[in-house]
Amino acid sequence: MPFLNVSGATIYFESKGQGSHILLIHAGITDSRMWDHEFHSLAQQFQVTRFDLPGFGQSSFTGGTFSYTMIINELLDHLKIKQTYIFAASFGGKIALNFVLENPKRCLRLALESSAIGEWDFSEELQRYDEKEEQLLALNQYEQAADLNYHTWVLRDRDPKYFDSNIKKLILDMQMTAFTKPEPLSPIEEIQTAQPLSTKLDQLTCPVLIIIGDYDVDDFQKISAFLHQKITHAEKVIIPNAAHLANLEFPELVEQLVTDFFLH
User: Fold this and answer.
1) Phi, psi angles (nearest 5°) of residue 149
2) Residue 104 to residue 12: CA distance in whole angstroms
3) Measuring CA to CA, how many Å separate 123 from each of 119, 120, 218, 219, 228?
4) What pLDDT does residue 229 have?
5) Greatest C-alpha distance within the chain
6) Which DSSP letter does residue 41 get?
7) At a CB cut-off of 8 Å and minimum separation 6, what does 11 contact?
8) What DSSP designation does 185 have?
9) Which pLDDT does position 250 carry in this prediction?
10) Tens of pLDDT along 97-128?
11) Going by DSSP bridges, is the β-strand pair 84-89/107-113 parallel, antiparallel, or unpaired?
C-alpha cells in the first residue's frame, strides 16, 4: 500500500489512471472511501489521487504543528504533479480553498461539494449537534456518535426505508475507523493562516463549481450561497433530493457535473 511520511504523519494515498490529474479530498465524517465510485470511474479519463487526511482512514495523526497545505504540496510533489483539478467535500472543501489561495498556480479548476469555510456563525441546530457529539465521544460511545453523524448529515429527516443501506454502512464504518484510532501521544496543532478564509475568497482566480444538495443542513445551504456570491468565477448547482454528500446518493450525476466542469 502506498504511504507518504509528512509532518510526522503516515499518509495513505492511492493514484490511478493517466492524463490530467484530479485530487480528491474527503469530508470530515468520512475518509477516502467516500470516493470509491469517483476514484475508479474518473480514472478512465484522468489520473486520479485520493488520500486519507491525518487521523482518518489509514493515515496516522501528525506530530506537533502541521499544515494541510504542506501535506497536499508534498503529496503532489511526490507524485510529480505540477497542476491538478481538485474535487473536495465539506471539511475537505475548506482545506482545498486554503490550498488554492496559497498555491493559485497549482489548481486548474476547483469543484466543491457542501464546502465548509471555517469562520461561520453556526445555527443552534449545529451547536446542539456539536455538543451532543462531544458528549458521546467523551463517554466513548462511538457507535452512538457515528449514528448521530449519519442522521445529522446524511439521512436528515428522510424515511430510511427509501434510503440506500450501503451508504449508512459506509458512513458508520468510516466514522468508527476515525473514532477508534489511537490518539496522538503529544498535542497537535494546525498552523492557521493569518487572514480568515472568508475574507480572501475574492482572491481566487481559478473557476469554481459549488455543489449543494437541497436536503443539506441549512447552515451549508447558506455557506454555498456565500461562496457563490464572494467567488468571482463561481457557478452553483443544486442537487435535488440530496443531502450533505450528494456524490454518495447520486454518483453518476455528480461525476458528470464535475467531469464537464473540469473539461470545459
Assistant:
1) -65, -40
2) 25
3) 13, 9, 8, 7, 20
4) 97
5) 49
6) H
7) 3, 4, 5, 51, 52, 54, 59, 71, 75
8) S
9) 98
10) 999 999 999 999 999 999 999 888 999 999 99
11) parallel
Using DSSP's 3-state secondary structure scheme, residue 16 falls into strand
Amino acid 196: pLDDT: 84
Contacts of 224 (CB under 8 A, 6+ apart): 114, 115, 210, 212, 216, 236
Q: Is the dihedral of CA 68, 69, 74, 77 positive or negative?
A: positive
Query: What is the 8-class DSSP label of residue 202?
Result: G
Q: Determine the number of helices (DSSP H) and then strands (DSSP E) in the chain.
A: 9, 10
Write out the three cell numbers for 86: 481538485
**How many residues are present in the chain?**
264
The DSSP letter of residue 150 is I
Q: Which three cell numbers stand for residue 174?
A: 468510516
39: which residues sit within 8 A by CB, 6+ positions away?
Answer: 14, 16, 24, 32, 48, 50
Residues lower than pLDDT 70 in the chain = 1
55-97 residue pLDDT tens: 999 999 988 888 999 999 999 999 999 999 999 999 999 999 9
Ranges of beta strands (E only) in 145-200 are 188-190
Contact predicate 176/146, CB 8 Å = yes
Report the share of the chain in percent with pLDDT over 70: 100
Q: How far apart are CA 154 and CA 156, in angstroms?
A: 6
CA distances in angstroms from 234 to 111, 112, 156, 179, 225, listed in the order given: 10, 10, 27, 35, 11
As a whole number of angstroms, the distance between CA 238 and CA 1 comes to 37
Distance CA 80, CA 15 (A): 12
